[in-house]
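Structure ticket #2291
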Amino acid sequence: MSVTILIVDDEKNTREGLSIALEEEYEVYMASGADEAFNLMEAETFDIVLTDLRMVGKSGLKVIDRAITLPNRPICIMMTAYGNVETAVEAMRRGAFDFLTKPVSLEKLEILIKRALQSRRIEAENVVLHERLDKKYSFDGIVGNSTGLIDVLDKVKLVAPSKATVLLEGETGTGKELVAQAIHQNSNRARQAFVPVHCAALAANLLESELFGHEKGAYTGASERRIGRFEAAGGGTLFLDEIGEIDSATQVKLLRFLETRSFERLGSSKPIQVDVRLVCATNRNLTEMAKRGEFREDLLYRLNVITIHLPPLRERREDLPLLLNHYIDSFAEENELPPIDLTEGAIKVLRDYRWPGNIRELRNFCENTVVLKRGNELTEYDLDPKYHNQSETSTDEEPQSLSSSPTLRKEENEKRLLRNALIKVNGNRTHAAELMGISRRTLHRKLIKWPELDIHK
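Resolution: structure written out below.
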């Protein structure tokens, strides 16, 4: 779709000269005054309005005032004589993108038009990006119906609009950063920055500088001033993941910030005020750490304004079918591959698995399944042995079930090998028997015994 430009100038030679210069690349309309421009703007949609400031009748400021009220607001560029620069600056305050002095340099005009269009594209991309973020981190985007998850979401909905500091507790991989993003995206800070810091990934001597910034010469190698994450998150949300890993010196500065909402860069004594909402996360027991003297008790009180505990996946077993289908469909679409159906048997095995890596492990399983699976169905016989060997992950108090007996484990492994062999040769029984090192008759007997393994069934 071509870019449309409206040229408004009461000097015929000027507007026609500009039209000739621009019409090869753009669709150009002309108006000899403000009233004619108003009529054209009502009838057509323009990307750019290029208007002179001083004209007979209404001035170019009136053109700009009308243009910025339109539903599809065009980019306005003012043309002015040298003596009217102050008025042109006033036009920019009222909504103009920029101005050019007369006589107009065509080279400068073309550069300015391209810069204005690029600026408009970036604005549009930002709108789309924010809409995607709103959708991704909306409460509807968090998958699950379990009681534990519903309790978390109910609490997050109450907390998000407030300014309160939030502490997220939960095992590794339970989705703490996703919940932190949801808190940010559903607050009045959603259009400001969300700045995550993974404290465990930074050495103690770097973390303080990373968070609070430093002045030039604050330490060896500090060749220039650098702002920290607190300043970068100004007006938005700062997410400190693994807060239990920060050293005592950083704990003191963090406590001071929570008390005064100010801090100093390394190498400076000047306090800096910032409006930042703090959301922290940990997979450790901070209360026990405070008792052992590993974490400041007064800092814990400041962080522990609102605590939200995220349940591990093993406590959300009823959510597993939903999560599996969600991630498998998502990765299938991302990789342009057909989705994979999970049989009831596969879902049962996966529900019984303890998922020590929680959602992160589940996501990796789903991506691996989509990318490497041959065929469009996943059965319990396609699953790795670790998903079947529940006796290895069960507690000592749990009685050993019949399914963990050596005889049945051997049978399950044989089923899995047979199923994989059939998939590899696309159901050809002769080739499958050769792969397994058995006769075709033996393979036939096994399929009569276990008909669910036949991929052409």
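Closing remark: Residues 8 and 36 are 9 Å apart (CA to CA).
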